[in-house]
């Protein structure tokens, strides 16, 4: 689940929606949380129970109360049980597993169970207090994800780290919690070097919410554009117009969280695949041309996926690397419609993610959508990762990842 900053949280407080029996099972059943199905001990939860949900792709600490996961190397993955008839995704634990408690509060006129942690803090299932990733020390199950998806250091964080002792005092902590306070402190304590390599605030980071975390979206029966989800590494190219006459435009090459502001800046992969794609597709020249074509644009962003050998387990039968765009964003127009983007970028020889259907109507259930997500890739005819759905105006998007793909490539 994504938090308000668009960062994926791996653990959070939730409410059990319903309990389903498993045919032939005496000691276990399925709990349903949003669109997730999780196998649990029979009688452990009931509809309305508060619970702590650990998403797939996460890894828990190698301590209690997680010792029962030692045989699975403490990793939470998509699993098949009962000869493949039951799929379980994630881990569901109760407050008492951590020595915590629950209490019932009236939220929006509905009596809702909330979790109280060991410090007496209440964690509600419908706001930012739900997130427990940092508190419980949970990380991604794959080491490379912990590197590629680590939070980028912005100029305020760098300023705080440089003045750690001073900024530990209450007045500074109070100011740092407020946007205007951070800007005020930067006027006095910030330095030019703090700005180097920081993520530009005008570039939106790429991450799509999973349909299991937003099943209510299926009520929207307007047409959607369905595109193939490519299993690679998120890549962003952007240009910002110089504000003053004769001031140079600023060109950016970014991974999910890192700005490659210097040629020798380290990359997770053996070679810098991000700068490689910038050169392959002449991104700086293309974006500079687009600034000339669109004089009203203060900035233009092309975002997509770099894929191929050595990037993920799924190499798309390639011996090199390639790029496919999924976003074209301009300051004055916002995100382009995917169909229009594909037609426009074709002029500049920039490939886009394959469009599966440009008039797709969402089904009524998450399971139906996940079934649709399973299929063959347009790239090489082998198994695809899933589907990303975008509204026609580009304002909404989410993903459905194939369970079959997860079972094959994410174990």
Overview of this structure, please?
The protein has 411 residues and is of the alpha+beta class. The protein folds into three domains: 11-141, OB fold (Dihydrolipoamide Acetyltransferase, E2P) (Beta Barrel), CATH 2.40.50; 155-195, no CATH class; 211-409, DNA ligase/mRNA capping enzyme (D-amino Acid Aminotransferase, Chain A, domain 1), CATH 3.30.470.30. It contains eleven helices and 23 strands. The protein has helices at 143-148, 155-162, 164-167, 170-176, 179-189, 192-195, 273-280, 283-293, 338-345, 366-373, 403-409, and strands at 11-15, 18-20, 28-33, 36-41, 50-54, 58-59, 75-76, 78-81, 86-89, 91-93, 101-107, 110-116, 122-123, 139-140, 224-229, 233-240, 250-254, 299-308, 321-330, 334-335, 355-360, 386-391, 397-401. A five-stranded antiparallel sheet has the order 17-16-18-19-20. A four-stranded antiparallel sheet has the order 21-15-22-23. Helix 4 (170-176) crosses helix 5 (179-189). The longest helix has 11 residues, at 179-189. The radius of gyration is 23 Å and the shape is globular. It starts with 10 loop residues before the first strand and ends with a helix. The mean pLDDT is 91.
Short description:
With 411 residues, the protein is of the alpha+beta class. The chain contains eleven helices and 23 strands. It folds into three domains: 131 residues, OB fold (Dihydrolipoamide Acetyltransferase, E2P); 41 residues, no CATH class; 199 residues, D-amino Acid Aminotransferase, Chain A, domain 1 (2-Layer Sandwich), CATH 3.30.470.30.
């Amino acid at each position: 689940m994504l938090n308000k900053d668009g960062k994926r949280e791996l653990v959070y407080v939730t409410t059990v929606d319903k309990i389903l029996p498993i045919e032939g099972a005496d000691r276990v059943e399925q709990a349903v949380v949003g669109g997730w199905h999780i196998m649990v001990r029979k009688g452990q939860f009931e509809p309305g129970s508060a619970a702590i949900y650990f998403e797939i792709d996460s890894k828990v600490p190698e301590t209690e109360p997680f010792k029962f996961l030692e045989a699975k190397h403490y990793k939470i993955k998509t699993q098949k049980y009962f000869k493949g008839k039951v799929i379980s995704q994630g881990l569901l634990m109760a407050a008492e597993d951590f020595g915590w408690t629950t209490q019932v509060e009236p939220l929006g006129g509905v009596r809702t169970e909330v979790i109280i942690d060991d410090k007496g803090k209440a964690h509600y299932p419908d706001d930012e207090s739900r997130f427990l990733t940092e508190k419980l020390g949970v990380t991604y199950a794959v080491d490379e994800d912990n590197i590629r998806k680590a939070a980028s250091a912005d100029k305020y964080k760098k300023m705080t780290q440089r003045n750690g002792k001073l900024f530990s005092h209450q007045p500074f902590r109070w100011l740092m919690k407020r946007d205007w306070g951070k800007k005020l402190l930067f006027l006095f304590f910030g330095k030019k070097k703090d700005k180097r390599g920081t993520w530009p605030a005008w570039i939106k980071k790429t991450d799509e919410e999973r349909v299991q975390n937003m099943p209510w979206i299926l009520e929207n029966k307007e047409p959607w554009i369905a595109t193939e989800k490519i299993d690679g590494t998120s890549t962003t190219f952007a240009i910002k117009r110089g504000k003053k006459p004769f001031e140079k435009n600023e060109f950016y090459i970014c991974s999910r969280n890192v700005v490659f502001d210097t040629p020798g800046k380290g990359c997770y992969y053996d070679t810098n695949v991000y700068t490689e794609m910038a050169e392959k597709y002449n991104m700086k020249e293309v974006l500079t041309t687009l600034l000339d074509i669109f004089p009203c644009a203060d900035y233009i962003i092309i975002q997509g996926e770099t894929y191929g050998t050595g990037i993920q387990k799924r190499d798309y039968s390639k011996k090199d690397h390639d790029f496919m765009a999924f976003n074209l964003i301009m300051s004055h127009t916002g995100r382009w419609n995917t169909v229009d983007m594909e037609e426009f970028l074709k002029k500049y020889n920039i490939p886009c993610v394959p469009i599966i259907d440009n008039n797709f109507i969402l089904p009524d259930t998450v399971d139906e959508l996940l079934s649709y997500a399973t299929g063959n890739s347009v790239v090489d005819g082998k198994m695809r990762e899933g589907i990303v759905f975008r509204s026609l105006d580009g304002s909404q998007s989410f993903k459905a990842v194939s369970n079959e793909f997860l079972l094959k490539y994410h174990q």
